[in-house]
Amino acid sequence: MIAESQGRLVLGYAACGLAGCLWGTGFFFGKIALTEMGVAHMVLYRFLFACVAMAPLVWRHPARLSGSEWRTLLLASFLCVPGEFLVQFYGLSLTTVSHAALMVGTGPVLLALAASLFAHERLAAVGWVALAGSTLGVALIVLGGTPSTSDGRGPSIEGDLLVVLSLVIALGWILLNKQLMQRHSPVVVTAYGLLCGTAMLAGMVLATRGTPPVHGVSGRVWLALAASGLLCTASTTLLWNWGIHRVPASRAGVFLNLEPALGSILGVRFLGDQLGPLVWLGGGLIVAAAVTLTTRGHVDAAVILE
To answer: Where are the chain's structural domains?
Structure first.
C-alpha cells in the first residue's frame, strides 16, 4: 500500500512537472501569434486547436455527470477558458514578458494558500518555506534578465495586476476540477471542460470582436497557434488534472514555477535577454524547492486518495 501510494506521488509530480514545462512555452508562442492578431482571436484559435485534440477523448469517454456536477464543470470551464486566458493575455499585451512571468511566479503561493483554506490540505512549515524559495527563484530569474518588448512598451501596473488577477481566477478552476475528479476521471473533466469553455469563449469573441482572421495569417503564426493549442493547452491541462488527481494541489503548485523559468530561458534564447548570476541562483532555488516538496513533504494517505 505504501509503495503504491509512493508510485502515485511520483507519477503525479512527473505529470505536473511536464505540464509546467509545456506551459512555459505559452507566452513565447502567444507573442508570435499576437504579432498578427488581437488577444481575443489568438486565445480563441488556441482553444479551437485544443478542442481538436480533445474531440476523440469525448467520443470515447461519455460524461456521466449529475446536474450539480454539470454546473460545477461549467463554472470551472468559464473560469479557465474565457476568464483566466482572456485576462492573462490582455495583461500581457499591456506589460513586458518579464513582468508577466514574475507575476505568474506568485501562482504557487496563491494555490497553496487556497488549497489550505478551501481544500483542507495541510502544508507543513518546510512546504511554505520551499514555496517561498521557489517564488523568490522566479523573481531572481526575471529580475536578472533584460526586459524588452517588440512594440517598445514597458511594464505597467495595470498589466501586472491583470496577470495576477488571472491567477486568482485560475485557482477556482483548479480547486473545482479537483473536486470533480473525486468522482470522475481526469480525462472526462479535462475534455468536457475545455470543450464547454471554448464554446463560451467563441460566443463571447464572435459577439464582441467578430470573426477571427483567416486570410493573411502567416504559416509561422499558424504553427504557433497549433503549438499553443495542442502542446500548451490540451496536453498541459490533461497532464495537470491527471497529476493533481494523485497529489495535493498545494504541493503540485511548485511546478507552476517551471512555467516562468522556462519562459525566461526562451526569452534569453530567442528574444535577446541576458542571463546573469541572479538567474542561475533563481534556477537553483526552483530546483531545490521542487526536490524539497517532493521528498520531505508528508501527506496523509486520506488526503492523497480522496
So the answer is: 16-305
Query: Which residue intervals of the chain are DSSP H helices?
Result: 2-23, 26-34, 39-60, 67-78, 86-94, 97-104, 107-118, 125-143, 157-180, 186-208, 219-229, 236-244, 249-252, 258-271, 277-295, 301-305
> Would you give per-residue pLDDT tens digits along the chain (306 residues)?
556 567 777 888 888 889 888 888 888 898 889 889 999 999 999 999 999 999 998 888 898 899 999 999 999 999 999 999 999 999 888 777 766 776 777 777 677 677 677 766 676 777 778 778 877 877 776 666 555 444 455 567 787 788 889 988 988 888 898 889 889 988 899 899 999 999 999 999 999 999 999 999 999 999 999 999 999 999 998 888 888 777 776 667 677 777 777 776 776 666 555 556 776 687 778 767 766 765 564 443 333 223
DSSP label at residue 275: -
Torsion angle, alpha carbons of 102, 106, 107, 110, to 10: -170
User: Which residue is it, cell 480525462?
Assistant: 187
